UniProtKB/TrEMBL annotation:
Belongs to the binding-protein-dependent transport system permease family. It is a multi-pass membrane protein. It is found in: Cell membrane; Membrane. Residues 25-205 form the ABC transmembrane type-1 domain. GO terms for biological process: glycine betaine transport; transmembrane transport. Pfam families: BPD_transp_1. Its main location: membrane. Keywords: Membrane, Transmembrane, Transmembrane helix, Transport. This is Binding-protein-dependent transport systems inner membrane component. GO terms for cellular component: plasma membrane. It comes from Liquorilactobacillus capillatus DSM 19910. The chain crosses the membrane at residues 29-51, 72-103, 123-144, 151-174, 186-208.
């Protein structure tokens, strides 16, 4: 194998370790999805709340901004002190980094809804809850989806460093490659699927985002 080019070694590695790469791909994707999903469950209601009480928005979004300033490897180390090694540490780290785009886009989407439409809903006798789920959320959904889209792409990159805390994923293959002599092909076997995952996730969520955009009359 030493006489083969890097790309030939790459295909040779995939041919012999395809099931391992696929299992780490799946693990990597699920870790990213879980972190973003938890962030959406927390961030969307909080985003709606601060859109209602705008004086809280500066504090909440400011706190989420502070989290973004911490380098991901440093944040992973801090979380590890509380949760130890393993998958949960990476999921929680992904959750923290996913909060800002989801929070900010939910807030922006909710506050950008045309006030005349809200007044029309009130004039029709709709309750606050009915206005929320029948008017505001449908109109803000594409903006919220854009935040989830950004969060997932970032999450896929952050999950790659989860190998340092024993979480597995494609980052584990990349680390193996960096520790191996002439491990360029192994690095590619971890890096290329990571890039592909991020690109495909961005395209799919971008398609959903466009589909959710309010139809213009």
């Amino acid at each position: 194998m030493t006489n083969l080019s890097t790309w030939e070694q790459f295909w040779y590695y995939l041919a012999n370790n395809g099931s391992y790469v696929l299992s780490q791909f799946t693990r990597h994707f699920l870790i990213s999805i879980y972190g973003v999903l938890i962030a959406a469950i927390v961030g969307i209601p909080v985003g709606i709340l601060i859109a209602r009480r705008r004086r809280l928005s500066a504090v909440v979004i400011g706190a989420a901004n502070v989290i973004q300033t911490v380098p991901s490897l440093a944040m992973l180390s801090i979380v590890m002190l509380g949760l130890g090694l393993g998958v949960n540490t990476v999921i929680f780290t992904v959750f923290l980094y996913s909060l800002l785009p989801i929070l900010k886009n939910t807030y922006t989407g909710m506050t950008s809804v045309d006030k005349t439409i809200l007044d029309s809903g009130k004039g029709m006798g709709m309750t606050s809850f009915q206005i929320l789920y029948m008017v505001e959320l449908p109109l803000a959904l594409s903006v919220i989806m854009a935040g989830i889209r950004n969060a997932l792409v970032v999450a896929i990159g952050i999950t790659a460093i989860g190998a340092f805390v024993g979480a597995g994923g494609l980052g584990d293959i990349i680390v193996r490659g960096t520790n191996a002599t002439g491990g360029g092909a192994i690095i590619l076997a971890g890096a290329l699927p990571t890039a592909l995952m991020a690109i495909v996730s961005d395209l799919v969520l971008g398609f959903l985002q466009r589909r959710l955009e309010p139809k213009k009359a």
